[in-house]
Structure formats: structure tokens, C-alpha cells
């Protein structure tokens, strides 16, 4: 079973592709809406700015296809900006609409917390604390590279949280949908295992 | 807190010198990378120190080979002069790219990298040498002093969009006399982006000093390449000193 990785032209895909190869799956890069709708497993990676990322999804006509996958609870892995773009909006690009299928808004980390300065971007490892009803997510250290974050797990999702000055969403999950603020493809053996569980869950659909 | 092994790579091999000179062979990059991840490295830096175009294309191939086996973040620096250079390294498997000499010569390179690839991907490699009352930026592998104040440059780089600074003390590089903690503290006071301390580590005690001085991560090369210690030993010692580590 091939994994379709959404290629919007600027995200750094090599790490994700290498991680999937290490799990023994073959991958295809796509920017076709029909593939994003039909493929059994889809990965939406993402680095860079929210506005630019949404602009490219719109150019490629992928916004509706991605929204449909989430609404229909079909296997999708979204990473970092990929997660953020599923929401309604982000403080990073206030005039740009997100895909809007996850009902929340992305915020910047505060500049300081309790009078002490917060290091932003968060670049490094942080503890992931899954909620009790999480299935795919397990506790462990994950690698983050983000300046923006979702403040709370929205209704209809399980997930996990981490703390960087403030408590924020580490990841959301609902069935075969997994949306991570951290980078599972860069999170060592823990991330490798999480990707493996998502693949297994997705293949069962 | 991150422990970050650094591979200086020339012609497809890991090399290491003292004060950026006198390079000697220290193994295969992909084998080293996999070994360090296995020991618990939190991240890896690959610096292309080759001076020739042939060396450059080897470096891209090295990044590709390292990426294939590496499941932790990879920063690549050396020869990043334009956005296209960054693109080439990112396509080969880098997660972050570090600019050094070219950013000093044309600081707008940092704006371009941050705009195109994001701040989380844009690293400033800052090599600093002591001078009266402070530090100045050195470039071209330490061969050239610029007169530019290191603290001023760090601040400007952060404003232009650099998301991290790999801060190397030219005076301490390869000497095993400890990181320049005054330099780390001066830069940490000037910027709120993470600082990776580099140059001078001999043991975990030096790393504790760097982290307490304001570094978010500590880089080490020769003590690891020479097999004097392992990442695992360093992290256990850091934990014993009260520094939270990733298991």
C-alpha cells in the first residue's frame, strides 16, 4: 500500500520520505486533488509560514480534498504546519483562512511567561502527555520546531499536550487521523513507533 | 536541552581539527550519524568544510546518505550562499540549514532563507573570536576577522529571521578547555532564539556550564569522534547534575 505525500513545492519532504522508507512502505508525491481524495493513506507535511502554505494548497486545489478526508475520518497524517493549516486561522497570517475543518485558531507562543522570557521558536525535544482516551499517541519525548501552537484539544478529538511556557496541543487524533505539532519523522525510535502505529491503523481502514 | 554531535565533513569523510585547522580523518558520516543516534543524540550537525566544488557535490551526497539512516533532526552548514544552496541541502535531507560567511557578507540571505523556508529552518552559524572588551565575528573558517561585533550581529540575525544560532568560540574550538561561557551569556542576553554552544567541550561539566550560561543545546565533536566518551555517558552525567534530558 502506497502512502501519498502531499507535495506543495516548498515543504522539506526528505525527512518524512526517509522515515516512511525505514518503515518499509513505498511513497508517492502528489499535488493532485483526486489522489488526495482517493489514496488510502495521505501525509500532509509542512514547514514554513501559514499564509504561504495555504496559498499553495489553494493553487493546487487541495483545500476541499483535505477537508473531506478529515470530515470523513479517512487516514491522514498531518505534521506541524500541516496540523495548523487544518484549523480555521493562525496569528501567523491573520488575513488568511485555514482549511477550517478543525474548529480552533492557532496562536503564537507568548514572548514571556510569568516575567521570564520564553525561547521561541521552540526547537528541541519536549514531553508528550497523551490524554487517557488516546489510542495512537503514547507518552514520550518528541522533537518540535514551532513558534505557533493550538491552545486546547477541540471537541471531537482525543490527543496529547506538551508544555513550553504554556500548555499546548502536541497532537490530535480521531480514528485514523493523526495531526502532530511535533515531527514524528524526527523523533527517533519513539516517532518511528508512532508512525508505525498510524500506518497500521490506516491500513485497517 | 539537546546534545548535538557535529560532523565536519570533507570529501565524504568526517574530519576534525583544532581552531578550524589541521584536519584529520574521523570516519564515515552515515556510520557516525547512526551510531550517535543510537547513543541518544538529540540532533546532528553536518558541516561541509570542503573548499572545492567537488567537495560540495560530495557534501550533498553525504547529506543524502546520512538522512537515509537518521531519525533525528539534521542541520547542515557550509557553502550556503544562496537560497538555492539551502534548497539543494533540504532536498537532500537537511531539516535546517546554517549560513555563516555569506550571511555576514550579505545579511539579506537570512531574510531570504527565513521567508522561503521559515525561521525554524534558518540557522546562523556564528564564529566568534575574543578581542578587547568583547568578541568579533570571524569568517572563512576563521581565517578572516571582520571587525563586526558578535553580539550586534547575533541581534541583527535574529531580527532578520534566524531561528537558531550555532555559536562557536574560535578561541576554544578543539582545545577541550571548555565552552566560552561569557560569550554564550552575552549572546543569550541579546536574543531570545535558541543557542547551540560550540567549541571547547571536554566533558559533561563543560556542558553544564554552557547550559547554565544560557545555551539551549551543546555541540560536541572531537571528544565523541575520538571515542573518549559517548553521548549516552554525557547525558547520564548531565542528568546527574540536575539537567533534564531526553531518554
Short description:
Chain A has 205 residues and is α/β, with parallel strands linked by helices. Chain A has one domain (3-203): Rossmann fold, CATH 3.40.50.880. Chain A is built from six helices and 14 strands.
Explain the overall architecture.
The complex is a heterodimer of chains A (205) and B (247). Chain A has 205 residues and is α/β, with parallel strands linked by helices. Chain A is built from six helices and 14 strands. Chain A has helices spanning 14-22, 33-38, 50-59, 63-71, 81-85, 188-203, and strands spanning 3-6, 27-30, 41-44, 76-79, 87-90, 102-108, 112-113, 116-117, 122-130, 140-146, 148-149, 158-164, 166-174, 177-180. In chain A, strand 1, helix 1 and strand 2 (27-30) form a beta-alpha-beta unit. Chain B is an alpha/beta fold and 247 residues long. The radius of gyration of chain B is 16 Å and the shape is globular. The N and C termini of chain B lie close together (12 Å). Chains A and B meet through helix 1, strand 9, strand 10 and helix 6 of A and helix 2, helix 3 and helix 5 of B.
Overview features:
heterodimer, A: Rossmann fold, nine-stranded mixed sheet, B: 247 residues, alpha/beta, eight-stranded parallel barrel, 10 helices, 39% helix, 28% strand
List the helices and strands and how they pair.
The complex is a heterodimer of chains A (205) and B (247).
Chain A: E1 3-6, H1 14-22, E2 27-30, H2 33-38, E3 41-44, H3 50-59, H4 63-71, E4 76-79, H5 81-85, E5 87-90, E6 102-108, E7 112-113, E8 116-117, E9 122-130, E10 140-146, E11 148-149, E12 158-164, E13 166-174, E14 177-180, H6 188-203
Parallel strand pairs in A: 1-2, 1-3, 3-4, 4-14, 5-6
Antiparallel strand pairs in A: 6-11, 7-8, 9-10, 9-12, 12-13, 13-14
Chain B: E1 2-10, E2 13-18, E3 21-25, H1 29-39, E4 44-48, H2 53-69, E5 74-77, H3 83-92, E6 96-99, H4 101-105, H5 108-117, E7 122-131, E8 134-139, E9 144-149, H6 150-160, E10 164-169, H7 181-190, E11 195-198, H8 204-212, E12 217-220, H9 222-225, H10 231-240
Parallel strand pairs in B: 1-4, 1-12, 4-5, 5-6, 6-7, 7-10, 10-11, 11-12
Antiparallel strand pairs in B: 1-2, 2-3, 7-8, 8-9
Helix pairs in contact in B: 1-2, 8-10
Amino acid at each position: 500500500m502506497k502512502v501519498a505525500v502531499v507535495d506543495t513545492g516548498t515543504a522539506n519532504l526528505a525527512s518524512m520520505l526517509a522515515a516512511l522508507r525505514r518503515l518499509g512502505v513505498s511513497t508517492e508525491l502528489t499535488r493532485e486533488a483526486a489522489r488526495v481524495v482517493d489514496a488510502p493513506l495521505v501525509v500532509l507535511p509542512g514547514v514554513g509560514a501559514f499564509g504561504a502554505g495555504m496559498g499553495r494548497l489553494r493553487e493546487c486545489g487541495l483545500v476541499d480534498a483535505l477537508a473531506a478526508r478529515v470530515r470523513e475520518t479517512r487516514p491522514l497524517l498531518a505534521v506541524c504546519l500541516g496540523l495548523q493549516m487544518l484549523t480555521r486561522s493562525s496569528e501567523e497570517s491573520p488575513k488568511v483562512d485555514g482549511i477550517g475543518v478543525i474548529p480552533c485558531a492557532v496562536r503564537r507562543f507568548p514572548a514571556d511567561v510569568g516575567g521570564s522570557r520564553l525561547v521561541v521558536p521552540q526547537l528541541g525535544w519536549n514531553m508528550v502527555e497523551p490524554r487517557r482516551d488516546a489510542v495512537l499517541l503514547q507518552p514520550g519525548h518528541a522533537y518540535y520546531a514551532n513558534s505557533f501552537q493550538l491552545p486546547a484539544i477541540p471537541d471531537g478529538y482525543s490527543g496529547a499536550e506538551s508544555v513550553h511556557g504554556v500548555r499546548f496541543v502536541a497532537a490530535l487524533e480521531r480514528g485514523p487521523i493523526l495531526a502532530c505539532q511535533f515531527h514524528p519523522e524526527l523523533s527517533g525510535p519513539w516517532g518511528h513507533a508512532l508512525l508505525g502505529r498510524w500506518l497500521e491503523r490506516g491500513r485497517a481502514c | 536541552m539537546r546534545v548535538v554531535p557535529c560532523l565536519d565533513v570533507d570529501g565524504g569523510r568526517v574530519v576534525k581539527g583544532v581552531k578550524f585547522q589541521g584536519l584529520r580523518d574521523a570516519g564515515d558520516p552515515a556510520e557516525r550519524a547512526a551510531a550517535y543516534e543510537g547513543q541518544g543524540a538529540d540532533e546532528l550537525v553536518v558541516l561541509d568544510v570542503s573548499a572545492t566544488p567537488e567537495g560540495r557535490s560530495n557534501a550533498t551526497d553525504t547529506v543524502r546518505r546520512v538522512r537515509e539512516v537518521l531519525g533525528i533532526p539534521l542541520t547542515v552548514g557550509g557553502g550556503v550562499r544562496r537560497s538555492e544552496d539551502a534548497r539543494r541541502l533540504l532536498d537532500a535531507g537537511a531539516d535546517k540549514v546554517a549560513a555563516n560567511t555569506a550571511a555576514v557578507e550579505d545579511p539579506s540571505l537570512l531574510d531570504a532563507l527565513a521567508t522561503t523556508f521559515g525561521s525554524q529552518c534558518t540557522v546562523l552559524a556564528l564564529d566568534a573570536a575574543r578581542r578587547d572588551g568583547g568578541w568579533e565575528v570571524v569568517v572563512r573558517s576563521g581565517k578572516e576577522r571582520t571587525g563586526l561585533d558578535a553580539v550586534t550581529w547575533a541581534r541583527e540575525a535574529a531580527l532578520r529571521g534566524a531561528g537558531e544560532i550555532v555559536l562557536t568560540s574560535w578561541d576554544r574550538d578543539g582545545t577541550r578547555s571548555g565552552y566560552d561561557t561569557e560569550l554564550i551569556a552575552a549572546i543569550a542576553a541579546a536574543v531570545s532564539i535558541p543557542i547551540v554552544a560550540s567549541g571547547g567541550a571536554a566533558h559533561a561539566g563543560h556542558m553544564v556550564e554552557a547550559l547554565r550560561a544560557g545555551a539551549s543545546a551543546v555541540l560536541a565533536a572531537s571528544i565523541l569522534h575520538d571515542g573518549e566518551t559517548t553521548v549516552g555517558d554525557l547525558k547520564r552525567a548531565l542528568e546527574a547534575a540536575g539537567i533534564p534530558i531526553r531518554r
